[in-house]
Amino acid sequence: MSEMYIHPTGIPMIVTYCILSGLAGVYNEWILKTNYNESLHLQNMFIYVYGTLFNMIVALGATLINSNAIDLVNPFTGFSIYTWLIILSQAFNGLCMSVVIKHTLNIIRLFVISFSLIVTTILSMMIFHITLNIWFFISFITMICALSFYYKQ
């Protein structure tokens, strides 16, 4: 039976992710709420264009470095049905999150993401038969406390 654990290199990566995610969330909320009357689709274009460009540059650069032939560059090499399902679910997730951010606060988005991790953990327990350790329960209690503090105000 596998057990969940935290690797020491994961801690700075988690901290970096949290900082960048927070900054991106504030920026995206600013874009969505600055021109509230603009179409949500137009605002989504403003939000996702820069991310798409940055990721495309990295993906094409890695492909060019790894394959020494420029005319054989295909960024979709190795894609399976599961890859496309992940892409579609993440696109749908992004659209849902933009609606949440536009009509509520960014903090609500963070709570939704936090509790989606609980659902993912429960599904992982059922599918992969993992066991939980103390770190999961500490993070779960922290999320419950944050939620109760937020709604107590």
Keywords:
single chain; 76% helix
What does this structure look like?
The chain is mainly alpha-helical. The protein has one domain (10-152). It is built from five helices and no strands. It has helices spanning 10-34, 40-66, 81-103, 106-128, 134-152. The longest helix is centred in the middle third of the chain and has 27 residues, at 40-66.
In short:
The chain is mainly alpha-helical. Helix content is 76%, strand content 0%.
- Which outline best applies? globular
N-to-C order of helices and strands: HHHHH
User: Portion of residues in helices?
Assistant: over 70%
End-to-end CA span: 43 Å
Major sheet details: none
* Strand portion: under 5%
The domain tally reads 1
Computed Rg = 19 Å
Number of helices: 5
What is the average per-residue confidence, as pLDDT, rounded to a whole number? 80
Which structural class is indicated by helix and strand composition? mainly alpha
Count of extended strands: 0
| Low confidence ranges | none
